[in-house]
Write a structure and sequence with these properties.
The chain has 169 residues and is an alpha+beta fold. Among the domains are: 1-35; 47-108, no CATH class. 19% of the residues lie in helices and 28% in strands. The chain has 1 helix and 11 strands, in the order H-E-E-E-E-E-E-E-E-E-E-E. The strands form 4 sheets. A 5-stranded mixed sheet has the order 3-4-5-6-7, with no helix packed on it. The protein has a two-stranded antiparallel ribbon with strand order 1-2. A hairpin with a 2-residue loop joins strand 5 and strand 6. It comes from Oryza rufipogon.
Length: 169
Protein backbone atom coordinates (compact mmCIF):
# COMPACT_ATOMS: atom_id res chain seq x y z
CA UNK A 1 0.00 0.00 0.00
CA UNK A 2 1.41 3.41 -0.92
CA UNK A 3 2.05 6.13 1.63
CA UNK A 4 -0.40 8.33 -0.30
CA UNK A 5 -3.18 5.77 0.19
CA UNK A 6 -2.49 5.77 3.93
CA UNK A 7 -2.39 9.56 4.10
CA UNK A 8 -5.74 10.24 2.38
CA UNK A 9 -8.01 8.63 5.01
CA UNK A 10 -6.11 10.44 7.77
CA UNK A 11 -6.50 13.81 5.99
CA UNK A 12 -10.19 13.11 5.39
CA UNK A 13 -10.71 12.36 9.06
CA UNK A 14 -8.82 15.50 10.08
CA UNK A 15 -10.90 17.65 7.71
CA UNK A 16 -14.10 16.10 9.05
CA UNK A 17 -13.03 16.81 12.64
CA UNK A 18 -12.21 20.42 11.76
CA UNK A 19 -15.61 20.89 10.12
CA UNK A 20 -17.33 19.38 13.16
CA UNK A 21 -15.31 21.60 15.48
CA UNK A 22 -16.22 24.81 13.64
CA UNK A 23 -19.86 23.87 13.14
CA UNK A 24 -20.20 23.17 16.87
CA UNK A 25 -18.18 26.15 18.11
CA UNK A 26 -20.04 28.74 16.01
CA UNK A 27 -23.38 28.27 17.83
CA UNK A 28 -21.58 28.34 21.19
CA UNK A 29 -19.89 31.62 20.25
CA UNK A 30 -23.26 33.00 19.18
CA UNK A 31 -24.79 31.98 22.51
CA UNK A 32 -21.93 33.64 24.38
CA UNK A 33 -22.64 36.84 22.48
CA UNK A 34 -26.30 36.66 23.54
CA UNK A 35 -25.48 36.01 27.22
CA UNK A 36 -26.37 38.98 29.41
CA UNK A 37 -23.49 41.08 30.65
CA UNK A 38 -22.69 40.94 34.34
CA UNK A 39 -24.35 43.93 35.96
CA UNK A 40 -23.01 45.66 39.04
CA UNK A 41 -23.61 49.04 40.59
CA UNK A 42 -22.01 51.94 38.68
CA UNK A 43 -18.36 52.32 39.58
CA UNK A 44 -18.18 48.88 41.20
CA UNK A 45 -15.92 46.00 40.18
CA UNK A 46 -17.82 43.12 38.50
CA UNK A 47 -15.00 40.61 38.11
CA UNK A 48 -12.38 39.11 40.40
CA UNK A 49 -9.88 36.94 38.55
CA UNK A 50 -11.97 34.65 36.34
CA UNK A 51 -15.17 34.93 38.43
CA UNK A 52 -17.97 37.30 37.42
CA UNK A 53 -19.43 39.16 40.42
CA UNK A 54 -23.02 40.26 39.67
CA UNK A 55 -25.08 42.51 41.94
CA UNK A 56 -26.36 41.88 44.69
CA UNK A 57 -22.81 40.68 45.39
CA UNK A 58 -20.14 43.33 45.49
CA UNK A 59 -16.41 43.74 45.98
CA UNK A 60 -14.58 46.32 48.04
CA UNK A 61 -16.66 49.41 48.76
CA UNK A 62 -19.61 48.66 51.07
CA UNK A 63 -22.04 50.40 48.69
CA UNK A 64 -21.28 47.81 45.96
CA UNK A 65 -23.07 44.93 47.74
CA UNK A 66 -26.69 44.60 48.80
CA UNK A 67 -27.30 45.34 52.45
CA UNK A 68 -29.56 42.83 54.20
CA UNK A 69 -32.07 43.84 56.87
CA UNK A 70 -30.57 42.04 59.86
CA UNK A 71 -26.86 41.97 59.12
CA UNK A 72 -24.40 44.36 57.59
CA UNK A 73 -23.34 43.68 53.98
CA UNK A 74 -23.73 39.89 53.82
CA UNK A 75 -23.26 39.92 50.03
CA UNK A 76 -19.89 41.64 50.24
CA UNK A 77 -16.95 39.66 48.82
CA UNK A 78 -13.23 40.21 49.21
CA UNK A 79 -11.06 40.04 46.08
CA UNK A 80 -7.67 38.79 47.22
CA UNK A 81 -4.46 37.84 45.43
CA UNK A 82 -3.54 34.18 46.00
CA UNK A 83 -0.39 32.95 44.32
CA UNK A 84 -0.48 35.86 41.87
CA UNK A 85 -4.12 35.25 40.89
CA UNK A 86 -7.11 37.29 42.08
CA UNK A 87 -9.85 35.22 43.72
CA UNK A 88 -13.11 36.21 45.43
CA UNK A 89 -13.76 35.13 49.03
CA UNK A 90 -16.83 35.12 51.26
CA UNK A 91 -16.10 34.75 54.98
CA UNK A 92 -12.76 33.10 54.16
CA UNK A 93 -14.17 30.63 51.61
CA UNK A 94 -13.12 30.92 47.97
CA UNK A 95 -16.05 31.63 45.63
CA UNK A 96 -15.57 29.83 42.30
CA UNK A 97 -18.83 30.74 40.53
CA UNK A 98 -21.98 32.79 41.03
CA UNK A 99 -25.16 32.16 39.04
CA UNK A 100 -28.09 34.49 39.68
CA UNK A 101 -30.21 32.44 37.25
CA UNK A 102 -29.66 29.29 39.36
CA UNK A 103 -29.69 31.19 42.66
CA UNK A 104 -26.39 29.55 43.60
CA UNK A 105 -22.84 30.40 44.55
CA UNK A 106 -20.15 27.72 44.47
CA UNK A 107 -17.49 27.84 47.17
CA UNK A 108 -14.47 25.78 48.12
CA UNK A 109 -14.60 24.61 51.70
CA UNK A 110 -11.91 23.04 53.82
CA UNK A 111 -12.08 19.41 54.83
CA UNK A 112 -12.88 18.51 58.43
CA UNK A 113 -11.35 15.37 59.81
CA UNK A 114 -11.23 13.39 62.99
CA UNK A 115 -8.35 10.89 62.91
CA UNK A 116 -7.02 8.34 65.37
CA UNK A 117 -3.39 8.86 66.36
CA UNK A 118 -1.87 5.43 67.00
CA UNK A 119 1.11 6.87 68.91
CA UNK A 120 -0.95 8.76 71.48
CA UNK A 121 -4.11 6.64 71.35
CA UNK A 122 -6.23 9.77 70.96
CA UNK A 123 -8.51 11.24 68.33
CA UNK A 124 -7.14 14.37 66.67
CA UNK A 125 -9.73 16.77 65.35
CA UNK A 126 -9.41 19.30 62.60
CA UNK A 127 -12.78 21.01 62.31
CA UNK A 128 -13.60 23.49 59.60
CA UNK A 129 -16.99 24.90 60.57
CA UNK A 130 -18.98 26.90 58.05
CA UNK A 131 -21.08 29.67 59.55
CA UNK A 132 -23.76 31.31 57.44
CA UNK A 133 -25.51 32.78 60.50
CA UNK A 134 -27.02 36.17 59.71
CA UNK A 135 -26.89 35.61 55.95
CA UNK A 136 -29.48 34.50 53.41
CA UNK A 137 -27.22 31.56 52.46
CA UNK A 138 -27.38 27.88 53.34
CA UNK A 139 -25.69 24.68 52.24
CA UNK A 140 -27.72 22.91 49.57
CA UNK A 141 -28.98 19.47 50.50
CA UNK A 142 -29.23 18.56 46.80
CA UNK A 143 -25.96 19.86 45.35
CA UNK A 144 -23.50 18.63 47.98
CA UNK A 145 -22.04 15.26 48.70
CA UNK A 146 -20.21 14.08 51.76
CA UNK A 147 -17.36 11.62 51.23
CA UNK A 148 -15.78 9.18 53.64
CA UNK A 149 -12.36 7.66 53.07
CA UNK A 150 -10.93 4.85 55.19
CA UNK A 151 -11.84 1.62 56.94
CA UNK A 152 -14.43 1.46 59.71
CA UNK A 153 -15.31 5.08 59.00
CA UNK A 154 -18.49 7.11 59.25
CA UNK A 155 -19.61 10.61 58.33
CA UNK A 156 -22.12 13.09 59.60
CA UNK A 157 -23.14 16.70 59.20
CA UNK A 158 -24.08 18.78 62.19
CA UNK A 159 -26.21 21.92 62.07
CA UNK A 160 -26.84 23.95 65.23
CA UNK A 161 -25.57 21.09 67.42
CA UNK A 162 -27.98 18.63 65.77
CA UNK A 163 -26.74 15.77 63.61
CA UNK A 164 -28.39 15.74 60.19
CA UNK A 165 -29.88 12.26 59.59
CA UNK A 166 -29.80 10.15 56.43
CA UNK A 167 -26.62 11.22 54.68
CA UNK A 168 -27.13 8.43 52.09
CA UNK A 169 -23.47 7.50 51.73
Amino acid sequence: MSSRALLLPWLSLRLLLLLCHYSLSAPVAALDALAPAVVGKPGCQTRCGVVDIPFPFGIGDDRCALEARHTRYPFKLDCMSVGGTSKPFFRGMEVTKISLADGKAWMKMNISQNCYNQSTGTMERNREPVDFTGTPFWISDKDNKIFVIGCRTFSYMQINNRVVPDMNH
